[in-house]
Amino acid sequence: MPDGNLPDGKLIGRPAIRVDGRAKVTGRARYASDEVVANPAHAFLVTSSIARGRIRGFDLAAARAVPGVLDILTHENVGDEARKPKPMSGEDTTTTLESDRVWHDGQIIAVVLADSFEAAREAAHKVRVDYEAEAPAATFGSPGAQEEVRKEGEHHDYRVGDAEAAFAAAEVRLDARYGTPTQHHNAIELFTTTCEWRDGKLTVYEPSQFVYGLRGSLAKQLGMEAGDIHVVSRFVGGAFGAKGGITARTAWIAVAARRLNRPVRLVPTRDQGFTIATYRAETRHHVQLGATRDGKLTAFRHEGWEVTSRPSQYNVSGTETTARIYRCPNILTKVNIVHADRNTPGFMRAPPDTPYMFALESAMDELAAALDMDPVELRRINDTQTDPVTGKPYSSRSLMRCFDEGAAHFGWAGRDRRPGTMRDGDWLVGWGCATAAYPANIGPAAARVTLTPEGRARVQIAAHDIGNGAYTVVAMMAADRLGLPIDKVVVEMGGSELPAAGLAAGSSHTAGITHAVAKACEGVRARLAEAAVLSNDGALAGLDPAAVTLAGGTLRGPGGEAEELPKALARVASGVLEVYAENVPQGLPPEAMGKIYEGQMAMSRGHSREDATTYAFGAQFVEVRVHALTREVRAPRAVGAFASPTIINPLTAHSQYMGGMIWGIGAALHEATEIDPQAARYTNDNIAEYLIPVNADVRSIEVIMVPEEDSQVNPLGIKGLGEIGIVGMNAAVANAVWHATGTRVRDLPIRIEDLL
Ligand code: MOS
Questions:
Q1: CA of 303 to the centre of ligand 1 (A)
Q2: Against a cut of 0.90, is the pTM above it?
Q3: ipTM greater than 0.95, yes or no?
Q4: Are residues 420 and 527 in the same domain?
């Protein structure tokens, strides 16, 4: 891997339109449920109408009598055909096939199969279920909800110095509690699954952020060889974390297709998506900050609580981020989980950092107010180039440059610190800011690159384009490294027949896959160069192979010596040249690549390395306007400044940052899944009542990419950016609302009734 050495950069770093854009807008792009299978039967899910209890039995007579119905699956007739799914983190998840147990409202309890979708749906509504219901616990504070301290496992609690004593002795203290609501992803594409068996082998078409993970998990559930399962997910219509792990539906549909000996297609409804997939858990926080009168932090305590299902230990533990944002000699963190009768939560954009940084960055704003200090200055006083938890240096950390550039663009210097002082007619104006941070994760990946004598390349990698532009960055990287125009590069992704790549999550994917592609391309160049310099007859004979470049269909030596690709290629292959390469990032053992092939998660995380902590940083600035009479809140203006050493495609990078910021505004002001506390049932499980921002809610969103040097984070200098755009936005909005009104809202979302 040529270190830190970006190619002469024909494409990398310049805005490129999506290579798959035309296919997407013309409908040629096949999403999983668009894939063609012969004569599929249609599945419709029957979901539980109670949240806790048992199923005594089913009355299927009326459902079976609907014309076109082929079969109805329940735990009674197929329960022994699959084992429980294992999620990627946590110990267990809700499972629905193997017993009469109901864990949560909306759990899959039967699957109706019919010749048409309409017949399956009609019959599903005629399935009668005899429940033995128990009173469920919906959430925090519900009778029967069970709190426990999170077990140490994937995540860690931190204890540095003596935070309790330091807090008690602090000159200035801030002690506050915060909360964030349940949220659901609501990607446009639904949670579909299509299964087809042929000669004992199974093909699964399902939108996925990790096709190898889906393959490996399903193989375990069905007791099969992973190699006998093929997972296909060429395009994904939005994922945001919800398509990262296996859920119960996949095994149900696989079993259904095997039983019918016919392909089965499931396209569940949007409301079913609220309960058959994962979501962002509700959280609570207790933050204590101790500081000197001049603003230096002396104590930081952060305790979090997260709701999960009864059987799962799932948690996101964002204290791993909040503990390392500011210099502080005394740190104490703790995370608790609360079991309720809910479906199991999972990843959702910046899973740990979004809720936990809301708490920290709100508390920092409260501390700044208590100190009568500018909130940017408070962050400057407590900035550090050293990870406060481990003492390791940050590979790079340009937080204050982000604050300075963001502040300059925003006009922050014109802010009056006193709340309620900036007014424009009937509107109270408030300005807030917050730190954004996200670990610079990177995953293992493998890629195969094929080059033809005519100068066409094919790149194969089981990567995932979840809307982020992954097809495009892979094509850009291969085109630059092979010296080809981008339209001579074909990229194949999203299938478990391809070389493996890790989970498209944790902002790890672009860094992971582009390194593997660059390595394979470098292998192509090296093979051609070595053969050319060792030849007796070529123009490059005897030259140093490392000095030979490949560009424009020509191999070139340092003195202008040149050889056309067909001739160079003929020396190493009579047809095409194919190179396979694997990249295991620093911080992971070599066997991490094998884990990906087995479908397990492996990722070098921001704090998993010995030599440095690797994190991306940014600064968010938001203007809100609160109507003096109606208390309606608007967020007309936001500026986000983000540091990133290498931006591969500024066009799609901009979209990722901007999308995250928009989501942050929505999460602060609109978004929440409401739950009926008696029934433990979601009550706004549709996008009419689940509020996400529309164009009228979003005005000016300015994204600034702050240049940053980092040769340590990884050879190509890539810090992922899919998630950091949302981090800090919730707090920046809440801080701006305080500045406009003097009212501090500590529970999201912020609504009119909070400001009356
Ligand atoms: Mo993302 S929530 O890490 O898929």
A1: 23
A2: yes
A3: yes
A4: no
